[in-house]
Write a structure and sequence with these properties.
Helices cover about 45% and strands about 15% of the residues. By secondary structure, it is α/β, with parallel strands linked by helices. The strands form 2 sheets. Strands 3-2-1-4-7-8-9 form a 7-stranded parallel beta sheet, with helices on both faces. Strands 5-6 form a two-stranded antiparallel sheet.
């Protein structure tokens, strides 16, 4: 796919992996719209790259619809969608208090929240974006669009307390190939990245010794991943028209231990 001049939507684009991807797309001449809840950071990144910010909650149909309407009014129909919006928690399925012996289970509302944001929110944006991409005139080889999703290595080797997170990210991996097949007749490609331990705002507040331990757990290179490395792969998945239906780990060969 020729990137220059295309329109793109990046969810979770106000920081971390999404912001790095938005910056790289803009550097390639792509018109970028950022979907995020954080208006202050989103507006700042949008101003930096000459893009547009849309305050969007990926769990809400009306909010997502309004975001796409605003983005398309400014840039035209997007040919690229990068899904980076997501969150996580760490709660055991059932646990016993060391102090009192009391037993409790994972609150189902907290479990469902992670599924709704990471899995359903991703699918919601895919479905609505793909419907719009189908209106585009096909380019070379009949291509109309490219979609990149963000899962996690936790989809394959989730740690203690990651039942909800792993389930949500495993769902993203599991739906990648069926969606790629659903959309193949329309010339829309779908791929997913499974990042390992990346230096994103999620880890920004972690003590240096924690970051050092995490870095040491990576076989090579022994450091945290950089958002720019995620962005590089995401953009290549858009550029390379033979990249389709794939789930790719980007993790320095790490395989997560139970804890």
């Amino acid at each position: 796919m020729e990137l220059k001049g295309k329109a793109a939507v990046v969810t979770g684009g106000a920081s971390g992996l999404g912001a790095a991807t938005a910056r790289l797309l803009a550097a390639e001449g792509v018109k970028v719209a950022l979907f995020d809840l954080n208006a202050e950071k989103g507006e700042a990144v949008a101003a930096e790259i000459g893009g547009i910010f849309c305050q969007v909650n990926v769990c809400d149909d009306a909010s997502v619809d309004a975001g796409f309407e605003k983005a398309r009014a400014a840039h035209g129909q997007e040919a690229i969608l990068i899904n980076c919006a997501g969150t996580g928690n760490a709660v055991k399925t059932a646990s016993r208090s060391k102090e009192t012996g009391a037993i409790k289970h994972f609150p189902l509302d907290a479990f469902n929240m992670i599924i709704q944001i990471n899995l359903v929110g991703t699918f919601r944006c895919i479905a609505k974006s793909a419907a719009g991409m189908m209106t585009l005139e096909p380019g070379e080889f009949g291509e109309r669009g490219a979609i990149v999703n963000t899962a996690s290595v936790a989809a394959e080797d989730g740690q203690i307390g990651q039942a909800a997170y792993s389930a949500s990210k495993g769902g993203v991996v599991g739906m990648t190939l069926p969606i790629a097949r659903d959309l193949s007749g329309e010339g829309i490609r779908v791929n997913t990245i499974l990042p390992g331990i990346f230096n994103t705002p999620l880890l920004a507040a972690a003590p240096d010794n924690v970051k050092a331990a995490l870095s040491a757990s990576v076989p090579f290179p022994k450091r945290l991943g950089m958002p720019e490395e995620y962005a590089s792969l995401a953009v290549e998945m858009c550029r390379n028209s033979y990249f389709n239906g794939e789930d790719v780990r980007l993790d320095g060969a790490i395989r997560m231990a139970p804890r």
